[in-house]
Structures are given as C-alpha cells and as structure tokens.
Amino acid sequence: MGFYDYSVKNAQGEDVSMKQFEGKVVIVVNTATGCGFTPHYEPLEKMYEEYHEKGLEILDIPCNQFMGQTPGTDEEIHEFCQLHYNTQFPQMKKSDVNGENQLELFKFLKDQQGFKGFGEGKAADMMNGLLAKVAPGYMSNPDIKWNFTKFIIDRQGNVVARFEPTADMAEVEKCAVSLL
User: Fold this and answer.
1) Which of 20, 21, 101, 143 is most buried, taking the most CB atoms under 10 A from its CB?
2) CA-based angle 18:154:108, to the nearest 5?
3) Which numeric CATH code is attached to 3-7+24-179?
4) Is the dihedral angle over the CA atoms 63, 122, 46, 27 positive or is it negative?
5) What is the strand order of the sheet 159-163 is part of?
C-alpha cells in the first residue's frame, strides 16, 4: 500500500482519503495544544498561507499520547488553534500515532521514514534526556517520539523526509518548497 491508499477521520468523524492530495506536497504532523513545541503552529500556518496555492497541504493530526499534552475535545483543539494561530489547514480527529490503536497511516509513515535521532542542540539534548528516563530504548524503534513530528510526502506519494520536533522549521520549509 502507498500513501494514497490510506484515510483518516476529520474532526467531524468523516473519512478523508489521502487520494484527494494526489499531486500535492503534503506535510503530515502530529500536534498538541499544550506542548513546548506548540508554537510550531505559527510557521506551519505561514507555510500553508504562502505555498498552499502552489500545491502544499498540511494535515494536522492532534495526539494526546505524549504526557497528555492534548487533553481537549476535537472542537476545543480546533478553537485553540483558531484563537492562537488562526490555522487554516485541515485538522483531523485526535488520534494515536503509536501503539495498538495507532492510525494505519502513521504505521506506514514510520515504516517509510524511521527515527534517526533528534539532531544536536539544546532542544535535542532536552528530548534525549527526557526520553532516556520515560522511554528507555527509544532510539531502537521507528515510533513517533513526541508532538510535532513532521513527515513530508512528495507529489508522487513518496514519504521523502521525517523531521523531529527539534528540527529547525526553516529546514522543514526548505524541504517542502524544494518539492513544489
């Protein structure tokens, strides 16, 4: 199966087929409203506004699996994003990205682009320290490690990149724009 064979539920519980994004560059991101990385919504929205007409789509999939940082309902999450970041890109139903109840789409994405580390710098050191305590062995599996992990899919449906939340958002943008 490929990217276009999957679907996810939107906040209203309706199926959204990835097929509708065929021919577009897509960023799939698991998000949270109460995380230190929540300000990533701002550059994501800026990218959406600047490049949507050129073929960029962003799929926001809220997830509450990382220290309960997305506790609200789908409606409350949407209201938060509108109020604080004026997001316009599609927001899906709050879902699991790891484990027994994970979305099949995320299993596919992780199989295509596994975890390669958090990189270097203060945020990377913080994440490595935290996960060494709460998730020993985290380096040895492809699971999503935290909120705001981003996958970039090219116009042909290939998963070309995975950016951890510690990645510079300018690098995420550079990658996405190079595919437009």
Assistant:
1) 21
2) 55
3) 3.40.30.10
4) negative
5) 56-62, 25-31, 150-153, 159-163
C-beta separation of 165 from 63 below 8 A = no
Contact 60, 31 (CB under 8 A): yes
Instruction: List Cβ neighbours of 88 (8 Å cut-off, separation of 6 or more).
Output: 45, 48, 49, 52
Q: CB of 74 within 8 A of CB of 93?
A: yes
Active-site position among 35, 63, 81, 175: 35
Only one residue has tokens 């799939």, namely 28
Q: For this structure, is 35 an active site residue?
A: yes
pTM over 0.90: yes
**Domain coordinates of the chain in residue numbers?**
3-7+24-179
